Each structure stands twice: as C-alpha cells, then as structure tokens.
Amino acid sequence: DCNLWRIHKELNMAFKGEDHLDSLPLPVQRMHLIQVDSVQRWMEDLKLMTDCECMCILQSKPISTEKDEQNELILSSQCSTSDNLQLLLKRAWIISTELTRIAQKLEKNRWQRVHSMTVRVNCHVRSMINEYNAFTRSSSEEMCQMENLLIEKCSEFTAFTERCTQIEDEQQLRSMKSCINQTLTTVAQYFGQLIELVLTHEAQNLLRQIELSDSVYITESAINSLLSLTQEGTHLCRIIAKEGGVVALFKICRQDYFRCLYPQTLRTLASICCIEEGMHQLEKVDGILCLADILTDNTHSEATRAEAAAVIAQITSPHLTFTQHLSSFLENMEEIVTALVKLCQEASSGEVFLLASAALANITFFDTMACEMLLQLNAMKILLTACSDKHIVDTPYSRDQVVTILANMSVLDQCASEIIQGNGVQLLMEMLFERSSSGNSAEVAACERVQQKSAVTLARLSRDPEVADAAVKLSCIPRLIKLCRSPTERNNSDSVLVACLAALRRLAVMSPDGLEDSDFQQLVKPRLVDSFLLCTNMEESFV
C-alpha cells in the first residue's frame, strides 16, 4: 500500500529523522494497550457527538479569573522549558502514531474507526498548539501560518471522514478513498513542517540565551534544555548544529567564568557531534584544539576532563563515515593521547576510565603511530594494572575498550614483551570467559566483543614463542576449543568462532601436542572456512 508507506515515511523524516515510528516511549505504547471496556467505548462514542473545537476551547480556558499575564507566570513557574518541550514531543509522538494508525485503518476500510481517530487527532493537534502557545512568547509569522493551515486541514479531514461514515455505497467510498489519502498525506506534511519550525524556533531561543546571557543559572538551564533535546534523535542534533549550537557551546568552553558548566556543555557537544553537521561546525571553531587544552589542563576537574574525553571518543568513532576533521586531530594527537593515558591512570571511578579508554581505543584505529605513542607512554602496563582493580574496570564495556587497545597494539613486535611483563596473557585468558550477568542485549554484545578481541589478540601475539608458551600453560587451548564447539559458550556468535579458530590454529603451530587428534582433524587441519561450517553445523544440531 503506497499511501500508507508514504505517510509513514513523511512522518518519520519530518519529525524524528532516522528513528522508526514504532520505537515509541513506553508511556505512549501503554496508551494504546489500555483494555477497551463499555465505559471507554461510551467515551469513544461521546467524542463523535461533541464539537472538537468546543472541547479544545474549554481545555485551554484558565481556571483562574485573574489577568492573562498572571496565568502565564503561574504556568511558566510550574514547568521549565525542558519540561514543556518534552510535553510537546510526547504530544507530537502521539499525533504521528495516530496518523499512521489512521492510514492502516483506512487500508482496511474501517470508516467508523477512521473517523473517531481523526477526531482524536484533531483534538490532539489543537491541544498541542494551545499548549505550545501557552509557554512560548514569540511565535514567528511562519509558525502561525502553519498552525492555521494544519488546523484547517484537520477540520477538513474530520468533516471528510464524517461524511464517509454516512455513506453505505461501497463503490462511492472506494472512489473517495484516494482523496482521503491525499488529505491525510497533506495533514502529515503540515504537521511535520510545524514540528520542524517549532523545534528550530526553540533551538534558536536556547542558543540565544547561551550566547547573550551572563547569568550562570540561565546559561546552565539553557544548556540542560539543549542536552535534553539532543537525546531525542539525530534530527534534532542536525537542527541544533545548523543553528550554530557547536559554535555557541565551544564559546562557553573558552570562558573561565563558565568553568562550572564545562561538564554539561561538553556532554551536549558529544551528543551533537554524532552527525556530520556537528563535525563541520567543530572544525570551523578549531574545537579539537580547545578539547586538547581542556584535557591537558590539570586545573580542570576530573569530571570536565572525562567529558572532554567523551567528545574525543565521539568524534574519533571508527563507525563515522565522515573524516574531514581528522587532519586537525592528528596535529594534536600526541598531547591528547598523553592526557588520556594519564586520565586512565588517575581515574577515580569506572565511568571516568570508560570514557578515557574509549577515546584511546578509537584513536588506535587511526594509525600505528598512535599505538607506538601508547607503548612509549607505558600505556600497556597502566591498562593491565587498571584491569586488576574491579572498582575501575567494572563492566564488560570497560573491558571491551581495554582489549580493543590491546588488539590494535598487538600488531607491534614490541608489544609481546610488555604483555608478558604485565601478566597480560592471564587477562586475555580471563576475557575468553566473559559472560553477561544481566542478560541485557547491549551487555551480551559487549561480552561477545570482549571474547572476539581477546582471541584476536592472542592470535596476533602468539607469533612470539614466549607468549604462545604462556598461553598454552594457562590452558588457553582447551578454552578456545570449547568456544569453537559450544555455541552457547560464545552466545552463537560467528565473529567469536572465527577469532577462536584463528587463535587455535596459531597456538597449534607453536604447541601441536596440546590438541587431541579429533580437535586437530576438525578445527586445525581443514581450511578455516570448512572448520567454520563444521562448527556452525554443530550449532544447528543442538537446536
């Protein structure tokens, strides 16, 4: 059904960017799961007999008889800008979901349901506009025009669907269907455009406060509201970046007067810099130099330096496809890496270590030069020592960062002696046993990465006879065999299987006596792809 797809896409692109409409907040999901009883059915019917304009007018009437100015003051004191924006976004989610459901009911010719849902959308749209106008002080002329267009089109849509409920001729209804679809698409377009205008307007207001205010309190409130907006998806991050958000936030980070606001400012920057527009802005304001200055300045708090490390981790993510900012990063890489290693060494909490080590892990993907810097800075010893402190390296996510660094550093020949001296083979062996304690999907995925990368690191380091000998003595071979043969031990992960087969083959070359003949014949002697297929077929036989 082309119309349903088009409406769904229109809403998705206009309101939430890449996020899928089905991924609603839990409270919104629950709204649609309420059990329908006779009272609720009566309430549904009541909506059809009530003028929705009167309902909305009554809804927006103040209870107090005082002057409008006082009512506005009461409203603004009860809710912050962030709260009001969250309310607006929730209402917008409900409307977008309802429009999608209308399209679904329309495809099934459920005319009565289409009309009742259209009335509900009409009320939600009017309520959303009233709520927004109650807390905003300066709507643009373009926004007012779009509000009127949307209200008019919603009223037209409601009247249209009401006529359909009174028609019994199926042929006539089918002939009207394309017109209804077109009206629904127009409503969705107007709604998306209005939300875009509203969010742009609010982002502009917040950024204006950040740029013009000398008050720490007002600036902090604006930054927190901006941070809240960035959590709503990449589309909002694009709007903020487009309106100069990165420039305004780095301006704060260059003023000593606002030092107490650096952590939340940097956290907001990390969120915005997940998109290409944010990176362009960062490059324009020489943001990497600013981050390097913060990281290397010991007068800054640990929290501030940790948030700066988080921005570095974000902009150096190997998953990003845009890399125009990396040239300026390479110019400052040595002092950034030095500061991050120091932050790992002095970290007072697991969160600080995680942010610093994540930044280092991403940097090691750039060039072997970064790995050579880490060796010179004695980073291997620092990371291995940190892993022995369960208060610092306390989650699979932290161990994932550490083993990523070890895996990337293991391409260097000098790395083997560092691993031996720091008892690193024992750590890699322990990481082969990494299992999730909560069953959380993100944690399970992190455990898989830890197993895979520890096997990769063993495979690379075992070209050194001393490392291979240490691995054999620590019974790495039996553990690798179990990971290959038992799908549950590796959580059915193919990437873990391939890494374990590679490590096993490398160790078998160095110590062939450590394998039984059946293991050698099945896991080592055949081609890697044949051993892989054999192990995955084992998985099928267990199911």
What CATH architecture of the domain at 80-201 do you see?
Answer: Up-down Bundle
Helix content bin: over 70%
Oligomer: single chain
Which class of secondary structure composition applies to the elements? mainly alpha
Mean of pLDDT: 82
Q: What do we call the CATH homologous superfamily of the domain at 80-201?
A: Nucleotidyltransferases  domain 2
Distance between the termini: 37 Å
Can you summarize the main beta sheet? none
* Number of helices, where a helix is a run of at least 4 consecutive DSSP H or I residues: 30
CATH class of the domain at 80-201: Mainly Alpha
Rg: 30 Å
The portion of residues forming beta strands comes to under 5%
SSE string, helices as H and strands as E: HHHHHHHHHHHHHHHHHHHHHHHHHHHHHH
Q: What would you call the shape?
A: flat
Could you please say which CATH topology of the domain at 80-201 applies here?
A: Four Helix Bundle (Hemerythrin (Met), subunit A)
Q: Outline the low-pLDDT stretches.
A: 14-36, 48-78, 539-543
How many DSSP E strands? 0
What layout of secondary structure does this protein have?
Elements: H1 2-16, H2 26-31, H3 38-48, H4 52-59, H5 68-78, H6 81-107, H7 111-135, H8 141-165, H9 170-212, H10 216-230, H11 234-242, H12 245-252, H13 262-272, H14 276-284, H15 287-296, H16 302-315, H17 326-331, H18 333-346, H19 350-363, H20 368-376, H21 379-387, H22 396-409, H23 415-421, H24 424-431, H25 441-461, H26 465-473, H27 476-485, H28 494-510, H29 517-524, H30 528-542
Helix pairs in contact: 1-6, 1-9, 3-7, 4-7, 6-7, 6-9, 6-10, 7-8, 8-9, 9-10, 9-12, 10-13, 11-14, 12-13, 12-14, 13-16, 15-16, 15-18, 16-19, 18-19, 19-22, 22-25, 24-25, 25-28, 27-28, 28-30
Domain Protein inscuteable homologue LGN-binding: 34-78
GO molecular function: cytoskeletal anchor activity
Organism: Odontophorus gujanensis (marbled wood quail)
